[in-house]
Amino acid sequence: MKKFLVSTLVLIVSMAFGNVYADCSFGSYNASSGRNLVSFGVTDGTTSQVVSVNQTTSGSIYYDRKSTIFETNPGEEITFSDLTWNGAWMHGYLYIDYNQDGEFNQTVNANGTTGGEIVSYSYYSSTGASNAPNSAGTYVSNGAGLPNASAMPAFTIPSNLAGGTYTARFKVDWNSLDPCGNSTPGNYITSNGGCVVDFTIKINEPKDMELASISVDKRSGEVNCGEKKIILASVNVKTDGGLNPFNVTGFSVKFTGTESTDISNLRWIYSTSGNVTTEVIAEKESFARNIASFTANKTLAHGNNYFILIADVATTATIGNSIKVNINNITVNGTKESLTNSEDGEYIVSNVVDYTKRQCYLV
């Protein structure tokens, strides 16, 4: 008789809450919270999908929106394009069931960055600190969360992820990595005004890498003698597909300014965002007869691959001299790709006085 009652109770619970992913059970929450999720959107820059939730302030915690499908490709960078949330002082968490086992793991590195199926979150602290990392490893305030879509850091779909459909979960909660919601006494998701939404991500079949475009962006302005890390130019190699990735193995740069000795310590920096990083992939102390050839070995990612050329201005540079370069070619997968350079993009050595440095040579 007891076994029959237990089985009946399980059946009733299943009927009440439906087929909830990741073996979670949710009820209603306190209507006095005044918090509710209306919708959110994700994009890869080409394809976007808005997930409508329309949670009411006295409604359910869990919403099954798996019929809403966001289609994208392996290797794409995903960002939140929309987030309509009523209320404040809450955090966002996004999971993808990459191994399709019906669960979401919560692997987070020591610096806050993710390494598993929780792919983006706006804030988490195991101690409840007022400042803690988000999934990008950036320290943020515990109040710097929703309703701003920008509070959710971008993440990248693995380039080798098999094509197919994957369940994703977006959770609004307070300081909890648990995909089923905060279970801390006094701060349950069922009473803090949270929301859990499952939707579907469709990953297209991976394909071999192709070269989409290569563009050059040259910089201009005034520089001082002894100035460090000026950006001379950047090359964006944009690719499509992530299988059998290409390698960049070399660059050829020509100095077209006044005196090539005005700059030194040239190095190429790699970045997928366009921002200067610390990843130096090639370097050369100076030009030889106004030409600098660089050898590199960098595997390209799907999408944008920025190669940024930086240099230091000599303390003996002459005021009024021009610092200007042309990127002649870049070697991609064994082929030298000739590049088109615009005529602009020129630095002028200025005579702005900086008493903390040695000054320029006057002519």
Explain what this protein looks like in three dimensions.
By secondary structure, this protein is mostly beta strands. The chain is built from one helix and 23 strands. It has one helix spanning 2-17; strands spanning 36-43, 48-52, 62-72, 77-86, 91-96, 118-121, 131-133, 139-141, 155-156, 164-173, 195-203, 210-218, 221-223, 230-240, 247-255, 263-271, 280-284, 291-299, 303-313, 322-323, 325-332, 335-338, 347-349. Strands 3-11-10-5-6 form a five-stranded mixed β-sheet, with no helix packed on it. It has a five-stranded antiparallel β-sheet with strand order 12-14-19-16-17, with no helix packed on it. The N and C termini lie far apart (103 Å).
How far apart are the first and last residues' alpha carbons, in Å? Answer: 103 Å
Helix content class: under 10%
Q: In terms of structural class, how would the helical and strand content be classed?
A: mainly beta
Q: Provide the β-strand percentage band.
A: 35-45%
Total of DSSP H or I helical runs spanning 4+ residues: 1
Report the biggest beta sheet as strand number plus sense, adding barrel if it closes. 5 strands, mixed
Element pattern in H and E: HEEEEEEEEEEEEEEEEEEEEEEE
Which spans of ≥5 residues are poorly predicted at pLDDT below 50?
Answer: 1-19
- The strands making up the biggest β-sheet line up spatially as 3-11-10-5-6
What's the number of extended β-strand segments?
23
Q: Evaluate the radius of gyration.
A: 26 Å
Shape: elongated
* Average pLDDT for all residues: 87
